[in-house]
Design brief:
Oligomer: single chain
Radius of gyration: 20 Å
Largest sheet: none
Distance between the termini: 41 Å
Helix content: 55-70%
Order of helices and strands: HHHHHHHHH
Structural class: mainly alpha
């Protein structure tokens, strides 16, 4: 139990960093250097103002220095990343530990890192409607390096590596076509780069399952939003969250879906 709690709060601390990374990147500030400050009065924050989740609760969801209400984005993101780390420790470390040494450690760590990247992409598009390109390129680079490492230790075929790259560029071309045909109204330009990352990360045929799943999830959510009048037909809905959810579903149940569909 103590390991679970410790891992959760380590993840929550990473979630706090994710909030900083997203906020500062969106506002064009340096997220590596500079002390954290209040979003409202810009006073430099003390360490006890930044305890993940707990500081938000202790100060009643308000800034300690100016008592301005804080966004619930902060504890939500910290909790989600904390749960991701806790899940990884209990289930994911074993679930993704399917190869021999030395990849028994590399593989789980890669998928934990990938989970954080996917969450950043999801949250940035959901809260701000933007795709953080630096994060996308980081994801593509780490996925390629990971695939190369698997190949070097005999856990991945060269043909699968090339097929994953072709899948990524195929998805990119497909999304680029949609963006071009709809003149940016049906698909945002950043989505095509996330599609590239999706293809490289999952390869073939799992990538196909994820790309189809993202459109199905998006269509179902879109119908629900229109039916409940939360959105109209003219409103745009961020698509990257659907892609991330489809990637996670594919990672967990992709083989069963492929077997059932006969792909």
């Amino acid at each position: 139990m103590m390991y679970f709690i410790l891992t959760f709060f380590i993840g929550a601390a990473v979630g706090s960093f994710v909030n900083v990374l997203i906020d500062r990147t969106i506002s064009g500030r340096d997220w590596v250097r500079g002390r954290s400050e209040c979003d409202h009065c810009h006073k430099t924050l003390a360490w006890y103002d930044m305890i993940p989740i707990l500081s938000f609760v202790m100060y009643g969801a308000k800034s300690r220095c100016c008592r301005t209400p804080l966004s619930f984005q902060y504890p939500i993101v910290e909790t989600i990343v904390g749960l991701l780390f806790a899940w990884w420790m209990i289930v994911g470390f074993v679930f993704f530990r399917l190869v021999s040494a030395p990849l028994t450690v590399v593989q789980p760590l890669f998928w934990l890192f990938t989970g954080v990247i996917l969450l950043i992409l999801l949250l940035a598009d959901l809260f701000y409607g933007v795709v953080l390109m630096n994060v996308v390129w980081l994801g593509c680079a780490t996925a390629l390096v990971y695939r190369l490492l698997l190949g070097c230790f005999g856990a991945y075929q060269a043909t699968d590596f090339y097929l994953a790259i072709l899948t990524g560029f195929g998805f990119y071309a497909f999304f680029w076509s949609l963006w071009k045909i709809t003149k940016g109204r049906g698909m945002a330009d950043g989505d095509m780069y996330v599609a590239l990352y999706m293809g490289i990360l999952l390869g073939w045929p799992k990538g196909l399952v994820a790309i189809m799943g993202s459109f199905i999830i998006g269509a179902v959510v879109g119908v629900i939003l229109i039916a409940t009048k939360l959105r109209s037909r003219k409103d745009t809905v961020p698509f990257v969250p659907f892609m991330v959810i489809a990637i996670l579903v594919t990672l967990l149940w992709g083989n069963q879906i492929i077997g059932y569909a006969g792909l």
